[in-house]
Design brief:
Length: 439
């Protein structure tokens, strides 16, 4: 006996399906899930690690399973446990070093890489992952393990290498960049500037640009402007520079600018957030002593939450020689602070001079000093640029946008219409007033 469902029930089902389609954005959604094994170069909580966590959370919300391989114990373990992500610790070496590498260390790195490729491949197979995702260019074990297993590898590239972090690759920079393209199904870059830099070595069809969402900062600042919060800088104008204390980040330029302002009779405080090698810290201390800046400059060391110092400052300085993205820039914008950035790298993608911040010639301490003085002498400009930066950042760097862009890069053809055209037409007809059959 065939059951004849009442027409009204069919219409209710179709209407519910139509509403579901609308909620799932233009009648499409992920039709399958995959297990992805992420490779993190570090177990700490720097910028690259935060992007990795944001990527995992974005993919989890779209129904995908994420696993992580860490090189050591660290803060990342707690972060992964909070979002219920399984991880394993495999002490693999990096294929790039910022301290140089002698012959014995070179051979040790090569042999260690070969052995750990096998260990990573074993973990990937046990997790039944169908994709390996490496979150930084400084690690190659994930790419080699994926090639060994015959599955796709994604390389999420967040640094230039030599120009921003002074990294020397064991196989040489150009050869390593070609291998990045050869061993990857897709290379995701955190800025267009970075993608352009790698483009001579990677096929165009493998390149995608996905800006991070910086969602941790959104929660820290809560979406509200912070210009009116109490600040020590109400006493003296205060600048802050955040990042690893190395030559490429330009702390020396910021000190030179503060020294020039002092000679011109304008006292400005500078807070340096971050840590780094003692050799560069000695260089900075020399500049401080030579210019008698001890009462104006303070070092905080590395902070897990630099937003506190950003809120207490009047201006954020970004003096990096070549920034691959500029997470700190966005942190300053979210805080409603004007950012003065060097005309280099991706900083020029984020700051529109005179609109949401100010730019100065890369390495030019005199122009940086002039920009700082301009904001110090014009509080209304400081507020206007800060508000414009905050509005722009909060509109651009959202978790939803990041998830959409990331999934489009990873799964360009993985979504299908939830409703066929014929079914959609029938739903539309019903939704505009079609009545159930009556006897």
């Amino acid at each position: 006996m065939t059951v004849q469902w009442p027409r009204v029930d069919l219409e209710i089902v179709l209407l519910l399906e139509y509403l579901r389609c609308r909620l799932l954005k233009e009648c499409s959604y992920q039709v399958y899930t995959v297990t992805i094994c992420f490779i993190s170069h570090s177990s700490e909580m720097g910028g690259a690690e935060r992007v990795l966590l944001e990527s995992i959370e974005a993919l989890q919300k779209r129904g995908h399973n994420c696993k992580v391989v860490l090189p050591a114990n660290g803060l990342m373990q707690d972060a992964l446990e909070r979002i219920d992500v399984e991880y394993r610790i495999i002490s693999f070496p990096l294929w790039g070093s910022s301290t140089g590498m002698h012959v014995a260390a070179w051979f040790k790195t090569v042999l260690g890489t070969i052995w750990n490729v096998v260990l990573v491949a074993r973990a990937v197979r046990q997790w039944k992952a169908s994709m390996v995702y490496t979150s930084t260019v400084t690690v190659c074990v994930g790419a080699l393990a994926a090639r060994l297993l015959g599955i796709p590898h994604i390389w999420h590239i967040q640094e230039f290498g030599r120009d921003d972090h002074g990294i020397t690759f064991i196989l040489g920079e150009n050869r390593s960049r070609r291998l990045v393209g050869t061993l990857s199904a897709k290379c995701i870059f955190v800025s267009a500037t970075l993608a352009t830099d790698y483009s001579p070595f990677i096929p165009r069809e493998k390149i995608a640009v996905v800006y991070p969402c910086v969602q941790a900062v959104t929660s820290q600042f809560g979406g509200a402007n912070t210009q009116n919060k109490p600040s020590r800088s109400q006493i003296r104008f205060r600048c802050v520079i955040v990042g690893t204390v190395i030559e490429g980040k330009g702390q020396a330029i910021s000190l030179q600018a503060i020294a020039l302002l002092k000679k011109a009779g304008s006292i400005v405080d500078l807070v340096i957030v971050g840590d780094g090698p003692p050799s560069y810290r000695s260089v900075l201390n020399e500049i401080i002593m030579e210019n008698n800046l001890s009462n104006q400059v303070s070092f905080t060391g590395r902070l897990q939450d630099p937003s506190v110092e950003i809120r207490l400052a009047d201006v954020l300085l970004v003096c990096s020689r070549r920034e691959a993205f500029g997470r700190t820039t966005i942190e300053g914008m979210f805080a409603g602070k004007p950012v003065i950035g060097a005309r280099s790298g991706a900083t020029e993608e984020l700051i529109q001079n005179g609109v949401n911040g100010l730019l100065f010639r890369n390495g030019d301490a005199e122009e940086l000093a002039a920009r700082i003085l301009e904001l110090k002498e014009h509080p209304d400009l400081t507020v206007r640029l800060g508000l414009a930066a905050q509005a722009w950042a909060m509109n651009r760097f959202t978790a939803e946008r990041f998830a959409d862009d990331l999934c489009s890069a990873l799964f360009p053809s993985s979504t299908v219409p939830l409703c066929t055209p014929a079914l959609h037409d029938e739903i539309s007809a019903i939704s505009v007033g079609s009545q159930p059959n009556q006897k």
